[in-house]
Amino acid sequence: MLCQYCSNLDLYSENSNHQPSLSALKKSAESCSLCKIILDKLIRARLSSMWNTQKVDESKGPIIVSTARIHGYFKFGEYRNVKWLTFYLYHPDGQSPTVEAWTTIPNTVFNIFADCGTPASLSISNRLVSTTPNDDTFRFVEGCLVSCLREHEQCRSSWVRSSVSRATNANIMPTRLIDVGDSKTSCLRLTEDCKSTDDYIALSHCWGNSQICKLTTLNIGARLFRIDIEEFPRSFRNAVEITRRLKIRYLWIDSLCIIQDDAEDWAHESSMMGHVYHNAFLVIVAAAAENSGIGCLFDRSTIEPSDLISVPYIDPFGIRNGTFTVCVGVPQLTHEAAEDNSPLETRAWAFQERAFARRKIIFTKSQVVFECMVTRIEERGEYWTEAQLWGNPGAIKELLFPA
User: Fold this and answer.
1) Could you give the residue ranges of the DSSP H alpha helices within 131-261?
2) Which of 59, 104, 181, 291 has the highest Cβ tally under 10 A?
3) Residue 17: helix, strand or coil by DSSP?
């Protein structure tokens, strides 16, 4: 049950009044589930602040609600995008605090979320992520791909392809690819007969200390005829599933497409690694897997259902129009925490693979991220532009392929 104030939260004012006083908040907390949590967190914030030693008149108020917005930073609609609500314990004579005072006032912050396609999603940029990647996850990836293919000329063109063609006129395709067939096919096979126009997906992963499937001089003949998917570790099986789901026929995995005990083959293929990753239609980045046995499509660290409260959404015209969700617990991981500390970041190859790739889907511990040469879009709703990603987008191209 929610009180009248929690049922009518104003997302379109910088600051608005909540309960008229701390004593009113305490009274409301007896029946309102959100007020109860606000009160508990504000009391904790006060005890740890400079206000701890000051006497507080609980009859004065009000409790102030502040909305945090980012202007021009997200892609979702024309409305300003709200990311979180902050409740301030402020009541000296009921006057609005000065800018300097905001930094010392006890407060508590709640992330807020909206489901895709709901009225609230036009104003709230955060999205809740499912515990396990599901159909919604793949719809997110497919939507990002469609947008990139349709709108990003920079991602469609290939400066690696033109560079290689001018310099050596060599075949820019990998020597070998795995033919994944379709979802009805349990057996795969290695092929050396791909055309330069064939699309393929590449996997970027950690080998780790686990036993990994390899291509050798002894088994290449058999693998050109048949590969049983059951012998694949989980990361490889997940990569096959994702490739089939996106209706791409070919997959490149380093350990299975380079002959591991042939020094000449390894030297040749590794020298072309930049072209392999750049010319891939898409690169799957298993960022959270420390070895090939962990996979990409695993249970993710998300928000506990008990930490979520559904709240009525009031649109810019003052009309109730669905709901949004307030997270009262620990927020989801930021992209820095999810990726910068990932096992893949310890690999020497990781920078090259991600820098060369035109498009990639990054599987972190908490969400899926789509990144191309123009944008970065997180499954939970964050969106970056080319300039925000790289500063100077041409810098990496100039570094890797100097004139």
Assistant:
1) 135-151, 153-156, 159-167, 220-225, 234-245, 254-257
2) 291
3) strand
For residue 325, the cross-strand partners are 113, 310
Asked whether the beta carbons of 106 and 51 are under 8 A apart, the reply is yes
Specify burial of residue 153 (Cβ count, 10 A radius: 0-12, 13-18, 19+): exposed
C-alpha–C-alpha distance, residues 246 and 261, integer Å = 32
- For residues 65-76, give the mean pLDDT: 52
DSSP 370: E
pTM of the model: 0.77
Helices (H), 168-246: 220-225, 234-245
Hey, what are 327's tokens? 């997270």
pLDDT digits (tens, 9 = 90+) for 74-112: 333 334 467 778 888 765 544 555 545 555 677 788 888
| Token pair recorded at residue 356 | 């060369």
The residues, any chain, with a CB within 8 Å of residue 267's CB and separated by 6 or more, are none
Position 54 scores a pLDDT of 60
Query: For 335-390, where are the alpha helices, taking DSSP H only?
Result: 335-339, 348-356, 386-390
pLDDT tens per residue across span 4-40: 999 999 888 878 889 988 899 999 999 999 999 999 8
